Amino acid sequence: MDKKYNNILCIDMSWVVIRNFHASNKAVVDPEDYDDISGLLETTDEDGNKVYQDYKKLNTSVLQSILKVVREYNYEYKLVFLFDRGSYKYRDKKKFTKYKSNRTYDEKFQCCWKSLDYLKDFLPTIMSCYSIQIPGVEADDLGMYYSVNSDRCILYSSDKDWLQSVTKTTELHRPVKGAIEINTYADVFESNELVRTPEDFALLKSLEGDTSDVIEALPKDVRKTFGNLKNEDIIKLYKDSPSELDIELFEWISSNFQLSRLDHILEDTETQVLIKQIEEENIEKYIGNQNDVQMLQVLSSSDINFLTYFLGVLGKYNRLHN
Q1: Other C-beta atoms within 10 Å of 140: how many?
Q2: pLDDT digits (tens, 9 = 90+) for 178-204
Q3: 3.40.190.10, 3.40.50.1010, 3.40.50.1970, 3.90.1640.30: which CATH number matches 8-192+267-321?
Q4: How many other C-beta atoms lie within 10 A of the C-beta of residue 40?
Q5: Domain locations in the chain?
């Protein structure tokens, strides 16, 4: 089967923006440095004191991270920016009420959401790239789509769930503690006898649970009830002889499996059509490098020294990928 994409690098943008949000002191600025503070966001710090945030400062931090990635990968890959937009399409929170219920965000995170919304629309105007957000679909679902449809793909995220999308032509590169952890198909699916397919990966997560997503592990008392079956035995039965599993155990696995698997999108032709439409819109939006005046509308006024470097890297990237 001919693949749709080649040499693409898919970036988990929600993770990038939130990481830079914390790295930039939550984009808090001194209002005394501004002639006009009408564009700043007013909020409070942990002590209840009034503070101001500049989402453009966060934009600059995120753009610096993107340029760093472009240079580290020697301008070789076309960038695909993947954005979360809820989870209800494949993981209905009315049914799965606990899913990601631990993720709460106070008013300070409004700065994050404003930056995410702005960058989603802005990036395809200055870069030959795709910037994809689909209502109800998470970034790791989109990563699975691009992975399966690519001849050569790198997924760039710290989230281990993206391991499920690794193929013989797709690697997951996880920035961890200042280094890049490279995960290949051999690492994920050939070195572990229990995990041979993406389905196995999702089923194992279904049994072991995931505290970060609030997916509960199979309780020890339930496992004991069914003879303390090992994970590999349960997975084998679920895949090969599901009728031999107790109904309670089968339903537990099935419920968690729906939360854990990323391949829903491969059967979702409606979403695939939307992705192609957005890609075409991205191509139409692209107008090449902005001039200094236009760029200052995106960056904080204190970041003017960043412009020359930014436009230089951007120009080289676009010449190679336009």
Answers
A1: 24
A2: 899 999 999 999 988 888 899 999 999
A3: 3.40.50.1010
A4: 20
A5: 8-192+267-321, 198-260
What DSSP string runs through 2-22? --SB-SEEEEEHHHHHHHHHH
Distances (CA, A) of 123 to 51, 71, 109, 218, 296: 28, 17, 21, 43, 14
Question: Do 198-260 and 8-192+267-321 have the same topology in CATH?
Answer: no
- Under the banding of pLDDT at 50, 70 and 90, the label for residue 107 is confident
Q: What is the pLDDT of residue 295?
A: 59
Q: Strand pairing of 41-44 and 153-156? A: unpaired
For the chain, where are the alpha helices, taking DSSP H only? 13-23, 55-72, 110-126, 139-148, 185, 198-208, 220-225, 231-240, 247-260, 269-285, 292-296, 306-321
Question: Do 45 and 39 form a contact (C-beta atoms < 8 A)?
Answer: no
Please provide the distance, in angstroms rounded to a whole number, between the alpha carbons at the two ends of the chain: 25
